[in-house]
Amino acid sequence: MILEVKEVSKIYQSVNRKLTVLENINFSVEQGETLAIVGASGSGKTTLLGLSAGLDQVSSGQIYLAGNELGNKTENQKASIRNKHIGFIFQNFQLLPTLTALENVMLPLELQGKASMAEEKAKELLERVGLGDRMKHYPGQLSGGEQQRVSLARAFSNTPEILFADEPTGNLDDETSEVVEKLLFDLNTEHNTTLVIVTHDMELAEKTNRIIRLKGGKIISDERLHVQTENV
Ligand SMILES: Nc1ncnc2c1ncn2[C@@H]1O[C@H](COP(=O)(O)OP(=O)(O)OP(=O)(O)O)[C@@H](O)[C@H]1O
Ligand SMILES: [Mg+2]
C-alpha cells in the first residue's frame, strides 16, 4: 500500500463552535492505482488530500504514506518524505512567485540534490505541457491555465510514486485538459505512479480505476470501476 488512511477525522475548533470537516475516513490505495475523489464544494476533498500528503495534521486517526506514519513526524521529516515520494498539484497552484516557470519546475530536483539533471528535465516537462516559450516567465506573468501547467510539470519533476492532484484540469480549456489528462495517465503507465485526483469532472473521474464520493465529510461510496490491468 502506498497510502493508508485509518479512522481519520479533521475538526476545526473556533471559540464557540466545532466544525467537523472529515469524519472517520478509511481507505487505502495500492501502488499504481488511479483514483478520483468527488463530492460537492465544501465536502472535504482538498482537506483530505492535504492530510494524505502530510501537508496538514489530522485531529484523530493515522495516515501511512509510503510506509511512514505521518502523525509522529516533524515538519522537516514530512517535507523530506514528500520530496522523495510524492507530487502535489494544488487547486490554487502555489508556485513560488519569485522564481521563473523553469526554476519552479527545477526546484523539487534541486532539493533532492539532483541539480545537474534538473534543468534538462524541467525543460522537457515544460515543453510537454506546451510551455516551451514561457520558461522565463514568472507566475505573475502567466495565465491561470499556464500556471496550472507549470504546477503540473513541477509535480512530475521528481518522478513521484504517488501524485495528488486537486482539480488538475479545473482551469483549462478542453484541448489543454486533454494534454494534462494524457500526461497524468502516461505517468501512471510509464512509472506505475499512483494517481489520486480530486475533480468535479465526471468524465475525468471515470477514466480512473476507482471513485470515492465524499458528502459532508464522510465517504458515501467507494467504487472500483475497471479491473486493474497489470503494467507490462
Ligand atoms: N482552516 C480552516 N478553518 C476552518 N474551516 C476550514 C478550514 N479549511 C477548510 N475549512 C472548511 O472545511 C470544509 C471543507 O473544505 P475543503 O476545502 O476540503 O472542501 P472541498 O471539498 O475541497 O471544496 P471545493 O470543491 O470547493 O474545493 C469547508 O466547509 C471549509 O469551509
Ligand atoms: Mg477543494
How would you describe the overall organization of this protein?
- This protein has a six-stranded mixed β-sheet with strand order 6-7-8-3-9-10, sandwiched between helices.
- Helix 3 packs across helix 4 (115-128), helix 3 (101-111) packs parallel to helix 5 (144-157) and helix 4 packs across helix 5 (144-157).
- 34% of the residues lie in helices and 28% in strands.
- The protein has seven helices and ten strands.
- The longest helix is centred in the last third of the chain and has 18 residues, at 174-191.
- The protein has one domain: P-loop containing nucleotide triphosphate hydrolases (Rossmann fold), CATH 3.40.50.
- The protein has helices at residues 45-52, 75-85, 101-111, 115-128, 144-157, 174-191, 202-205; strands at 3-14, 17-29, 34-39, 60-65, 68-69, 86-89, 162-166, 194-198, 210-215, 218-224.
- The chain is of the alpha/beta class and 232 residues long.
- It binds adenosine-5'-triphosphate and magnesium ion.
- The site of magnesium ion (MG) has 4 residues, from helix 1.
- Residues 45-46, 91, 166 line the site of magnesium ion.
